[in-house]
Protein backbone atom coordinates (compact mmCIF):
# COMPACT_ATOMS: atom_id res chain seq x y z
CA UNK A 1 0.00 0.00 0.00
CA UNK A 2 2.95 2.27 0.70
CA UNK A 3 4.31 1.60 -2.77
CA UNK A 4 1.00 2.59 -4.26
CA UNK A 5 1.04 5.81 -2.27
CA UNK A 6 4.52 6.55 -3.39
CA UNK A 7 3.55 5.89 -6.98
CA UNK A 8 0.59 8.18 -6.69
CA UNK A 9 2.73 10.82 -5.03
CA UNK A 10 5.33 10.64 -7.73
CA UNK A 11 2.69 10.93 -10.39
CA UNK A 12 1.14 13.99 -8.75
CA UNK A 13 4.49 15.78 -8.55
CA UNK A 14 5.15 15.32 -12.26
CA UNK A 15 1.81 16.74 -13.19
CA UNK A 16 2.48 19.85 -11.05
CA UNK A 17 5.79 20.47 -12.75
CA UNK A 18 4.24 20.17 -16.17
CA UNK A 19 1.57 22.63 -15.16
CA UNK A 20 4.20 25.12 -14.05
CA UNK A 21 6.04 24.83 -17.35
CA UNK A 22 2.92 25.52 -19.32
CA UNK A 23 2.23 28.59 -17.19
CA UNK A 24 5.70 29.97 -17.76
CA UNK A 25 5.43 29.35 -21.50
CA UNK A 26 2.14 31.22 -21.69
CA UNK A 27 3.59 34.13 -19.73
CA UNK A 28 6.65 34.25 -21.98
CA UNK A 29 4.55 34.25 -25.11
CA UNK A 30 2.37 36.96 -23.69
CA UNK A 31 5.36 39.11 -22.85
CA UNK A 32 6.73 38.65 -26.37
CA UNK A 33 3.43 39.61 -27.88
CA UNK A 34 3.24 42.71 -25.69
CA UNK A 35 6.82 43.62 -26.63
CA UNK A 36 6.09 43.15 -30.32
CA UNK A 37 2.91 45.21 -30.04
CA UNK A 38 4.77 47.96 -28.20
CA UNK A 39 7.56 48.01 -30.82
CA UNK A 40 5.00 48.12 -33.63
CA UNK A 41 3.17 51.00 -31.92
CA UNK A 42 6.42 52.92 -31.56
CA UNK A 43 7.19 52.44 -35.24
CA UNK A 44 3.77 53.67 -36.27
CA UNK A 45 4.09 56.70 -33.98
CA UNK A 46 7.53 57.51 -35.38
CA UNK A 47 6.21 57.21 -38.94
CA UNK A 48 3.28 59.55 -38.16
CA UNK A 49 5.68 62.03 -36.53
CA UNK A 50 7.98 61.97 -39.55
CA UNK A 51 5.07 62.68 -41.87
CA UNK A 52 3.99 65.67 -39.79
CA UNK A 53 7.51 67.22 -39.64
CA UNK A 54 8.65 69.45 -42.62
CA UNK A 55 11.44 68.20 -44.85
CA UNK A 56 14.88 69.02 -43.55
CA UNK A 57 16.65 71.43 -45.95
CA UNK A 58 19.94 70.40 -47.51
CA UNK A 59 22.99 71.51 -45.65
CA UNK A 60 24.59 74.63 -47.19
CA UNK A 61 28.04 74.19 -48.70
CA UNK A 62 30.88 74.68 -46.33
CA UNK A 63 32.29 78.20 -46.48
CA UNK A 64 35.70 79.29 -45.33
CA UNK A 65 35.86 81.30 -42.15
CA UNK A 66 35.33 85.04 -42.57
CA UNK A 67 38.89 85.89 -41.44
CA UNK A 68 40.37 83.63 -44.13
CA UNK A 69 38.25 85.34 -46.80
CA UNK A 70 39.37 88.80 -45.64
CA UNK A 71 43.03 87.76 -45.68
CA UNK A 72 42.68 86.31 -49.18
CA UNK A 73 41.13 89.55 -50.45
CA UNK A 74 43.91 91.61 -48.84
CA UNK A 75 46.57 89.39 -50.39
CA UNK A 76 44.97 89.77 -53.84
CA UNK A 77 44.81 93.56 -53.45
CA UNK A 78 48.47 93.64 -52.41
CA UNK A 79 49.55 91.60 -55.42
CA UNK A 80 47.53 93.85 -57.74
CA UNK A 81 49.10 96.97 -56.22
CA UNK A 82 52.60 95.53 -56.59
CA UNK A 83 51.95 94.71 -60.24
CA UNK A 84 50.63 98.21 -60.88
CA UNK A 85 53.66 99.78 -59.20
CA UNK A 86 56.01 97.61 -61.25
CA UNK A 87 54.24 98.56 -64.48
CA UNK A 88 54.34 102.26 -63.62
CA UNK A 89 58.04 102.06 -62.78
CA UNK A 90 58.77 100.34 -66.10
CA UNK A 91 56.79 102.99 -68.01
CA UNK A 92 58.58 105.81 -66.17
CA UNK A 93 62.00 104.26 -66.90
CA UNK A 94 61.10 103.89 -70.60
CA UNK A 95 59.97 107.53 -70.75
CA UNK A 96 63.27 108.64 -69.21
CA UNK A 97 65.14 106.69 -71.88
CA UNK A 98 63.11 108.40 -74.61
CA UNK A 99 63.88 111.81 -73.11
CA UNK A 100 67.61 111.05 -72.96
CA UNK A 101 67.60 109.80 -76.56
CA UNK A 102 65.88 113.00 -77.69
CA UNK A 103 68.40 115.10 -75.73
CA UNK A 104 71.32 113.24 -77.32
CA UNK A 105 69.88 113.73 -80.80
CA UNK A 106 69.33 117.46 -80.27
CA UNK A 107 72.85 117.87 -78.84
CA UNK A 108 74.33 116.11 -81.88
CA UNK A 109 72.51 118.48 -84.22
CA UNK A 110 73.68 121.49 -82.20
CA UNK A 111 77.31 120.34 -82.38
CA UNK A 112 77.12 119.96 -86.15
CA UNK A 113 75.51 123.36 -86.52
CA UNK A 114 78.14 124.88 -84.22
CA UNK A 115 80.93 123.49 -86.41
CA UNK A 116 79.25 124.90 -89.49
CA UNK A 117 78.75 128.32 -87.88
CA UNK A 118 82.00 128.82 -85.98
CA UNK A 119 84.24 126.45 -87.88
CA UNK A 120 85.77 123.10 -87.04
CA UNK A 121 88.63 123.06 -84.51
CA UNK A 122 92.02 122.56 -86.09
CA UNK A 123 92.89 119.83 -83.60
CA UNK A 124 91.17 116.63 -84.65
CA UNK A 125 91.19 115.20 -81.14
CA UNK A 126 89.43 118.28 -79.76
CA UNK A 127 86.86 118.07 -82.53
CA UNK A 128 86.29 114.38 -81.79
CA UNK A 129 85.87 115.08 -78.07
CA UNK A 130 83.17 117.65 -78.77
CA UNK A 131 81.36 115.23 -81.05
CA UNK A 132 81.46 112.51 -78.38
CA UNK A 133 79.77 114.62 -75.68
CA UNK A 134 76.16 114.07 -76.92
CA UNK A 135 76.68 110.31 -76.68
CA UNK A 136 77.04 110.56 -72.89
CA UNK A 137 73.32 111.37 -72.60
CA UNK A 138 72.30 108.52 -74.89
CA UNK A 139 70.37 105.79 -72.96
CA UNK A 140 71.58 102.24 -72.75
CA UNK A 141 69.60 99.00 -72.87
CA UNK A 142 69.96 96.65 -69.95
CA UNK A 143 71.90 98.21 -67.09
CA UNK A 144 75.16 96.45 -66.32
CA UNK A 145 77.62 97.11 -63.55
CA UNK A 146 81.37 97.19 -63.72
CA UNK A 147 83.47 97.14 -66.85
CA UNK A 148 80.69 95.44 -68.83
CA UNK A 149 78.36 98.40 -68.31
CA UNK A 150 81.07 100.86 -69.36
CA UNK A 151 81.94 98.95 -72.54
CA UNK A 152 78.30 98.62 -73.59
CA UNK A 153 77.59 102.35 -73.20
CA UNK A 154 77.32 104.20 -76.54
CA UNK A 155 79.62 106.94 -75.27
CA UNK A 156 82.40 104.36 -74.92
CA UNK A 157 82.33 102.47 -78.21
CA UNK A 158 81.01 105.46 -80.16
CA UNK A 159 83.66 107.74 -78.69
CA UNK A 160 86.33 105.14 -79.30
CA UNK A 161 85.34 104.96 -82.95
CA UNK A 162 85.30 108.74 -83.35
CA UNK A 163 88.70 109.08 -81.69
CA UNK A 164 90.15 106.33 -83.88
CA UNK A 165 88.93 108.03 -87.05
CA UNK A 166 90.21 111.39 -85.82
CA UNK A 167 93.61 109.86 -85.10
CA UNK A 168 93.78 108.29 -88.57
CA UNK A 169 92.79 111.58 -90.18
CA UNK A 170 95.38 113.42 -88.13
CA UNK A 171 98.07 110.99 -89.21
CA UNK A 172 97.06 111.32 -92.84
CA UNK A 173 97.19 115.08 -92.59
CA UNK A 174 100.57 114.97 -90.95
CA UNK A 175 101.93 112.67 -93.60
CA UNK A 176 100.50 114.80 -96.38
CA UNK A 177 101.27 118.13 -94.72
CA UNK A 178 103.96 120.41 -96.07
CA UNK A 179 107.26 119.80 -94.37
CA UNK A 180 109.64 121.78 -96.55
CA UNK A 181 109.48 124.72 -98.96
CA UNK A 182 112.44 125.76 -101.10
CA UNK A 183 112.17 129.11 -102.89
CA UNK A 184 113.97 129.55 -106.21
CA UNK A 185 114.19 132.98 -107.80
CA UNK A 186 116.38 136.04 -108.46
CA UNK A 187 118.13 137.84 -105.63
CA UNK A 188 118.62 141.10 -107.61
CA UNK A 189 116.60 142.85 -110.28
CA UNK A 190 116.84 146.15 -112.07
CA UNK A 191 113.96 148.58 -112.03
CA UNK A 192 111.33 147.53 -114.56
CA UNK A 193 112.54 143.95 -114.81
CA UNK A 194 110.09 141.04 -114.62
CA UNK A 195 111.04 137.65 -113.28
CA UNK A 196 109.48 134.55 -111.66
CA UNK A 197 109.77 132.94 -108.27
CA UNK A 198 109.19 129.18 -107.89
CA UNK A 199 108.52 127.20 -104.70
CA UNK A 200 109.51 123.57 -104.34
CA UNK A 201 107.02 122.09 -101.82
CA UNK A 202 107.52 118.65 -100.24
CA UNK A 203 105.66 116.61 -97.62
CA UNK A 204 107.07 114.26 -94.95
CA UNK A 205 107.62 111.49 -97.47
CA UNK A 206 109.39 113.82 -99.91
CA UNK A 207 106.45 113.97 -102.29
CA UNK A 208 104.71 117.03 -103.66
CA UNK A 209 101.41 117.36 -101.74
CA UNK A 210 98.32 117.39 -103.86
CA UNK A 211 96.27 120.59 -104.08
CA UNK A 212 98.91 122.69 -102.32
CA UNK A 213 99.70 126.01 -104.01
CA UNK A 214 102.14 128.40 -102.39
CA UNK A 215 101.01 131.94 -101.70
CA UNK A 216 103.45 134.74 -102.57
CA UNK A 217 103.83 138.07 -100.84
CA UNK A 218 106.18 141.06 -101.02
CA UNK A 219 106.99 143.00 -97.88
CA UNK A 220 107.46 146.22 -99.89
CA UNK A 221 105.30 146.40 -102.98
CA UNK A 222 106.82 149.83 -103.84
CA UNK A 223 110.13 148.11 -104.50
CA UNK A 224 108.83 144.89 -106.06
CA UNK A 225 105.34 143.62 -106.64
CA UNK A 226 104.67 139.85 -106.88
CA UNK A 227 101.63 137.92 -108.06
CA UNK A 228 100.25 136.00 -105.08
CA UNK A 229 99.42 132.94 -107.15
CA UNK A 230 101.89 132.70 -110.01
CA UNK A 231 104.95 134.13 -108.24
CA UNK A 232 105.71 136.58 -111.07
CA UNK A 233 107.61 139.58 -109.69
CA UNK A 234 107.98 143.07 -111.16
CA UNK A 235 110.66 145.47 -109.98
CA UNK A 236 109.27 148.95 -109.37
CA UNK A 237 111.98 151.04 -107.76
CA UNK A 238 115.35 150.73 -106.19
CA UNK A 239 115.38 149.22 -102.77
CA UNK A 240 115.10 145.93 -100.86
CA UNK A 241 112.04 143.76 -100.23
CA UNK A 242 111.37 140.37 -98.71
CA UNK A 243 109.57 137.83 -100.85
CA UNK A 244 107.61 135.24 -98.82
CA UNK A 245 106.24 131.91 -99.98
CA UNK A 246 103.69 130.19 -97.71
CA UNK A 247 102.61 126.57 -98.25
CA UNK A 248 100.56 124.94 -95.52
CA UNK A 249 102.07 126.00 -92.23
CA UNK A 250 105.53 126.52 -93.70
CA UNK A 251 106.79 129.99 -94.70
CA UNK A 252 110.03 130.63 -96.55
CA UNK A 253 111.47 134.12 -97.12
CA UNK A 254 114.17 135.38 -99.51
CA UNK A 255 115.73 138.81 -99.95
CA UNK A 256 115.27 140.66 -103.22
CA UNK A 257 117.25 143.76 -104.09
CA UNK A 258 116.11 146.14 -106.84
CA UNK A 259 118.66 148.48 -108.37
CA UNK A 260 118.40 151.24 -110.87
CA UNK A 261 119.11 150.54 -114.48
CA UNK A 262 122.85 150.53 -115.17
CA UNK A 263 123.56 150.16 -111.46
CA UNK A 264 125.79 147.49 -110.00
Automatic annotation (TrEMBL):
Residues 1-66 are annotated as: Disordered. It comes from the Bacteria. Residues 29-51 have a biased composition (Basic residues). Residues 7-24 have a biased composition (Acidic residues). Signal peptide: none annotated. InterPro entries: Invasin/intimin_cell_adhesion. This is BIG2 domain-containing protein.
Amino acid sequence: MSSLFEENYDTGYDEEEEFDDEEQSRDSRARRRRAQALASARRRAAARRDRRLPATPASPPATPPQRAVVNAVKELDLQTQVQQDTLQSAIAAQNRKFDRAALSTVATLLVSEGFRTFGTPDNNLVRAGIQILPLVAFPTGEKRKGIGGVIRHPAFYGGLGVLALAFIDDQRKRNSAVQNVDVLGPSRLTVGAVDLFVADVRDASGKVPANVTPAWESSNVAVAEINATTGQVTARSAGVTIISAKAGDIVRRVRLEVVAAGGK
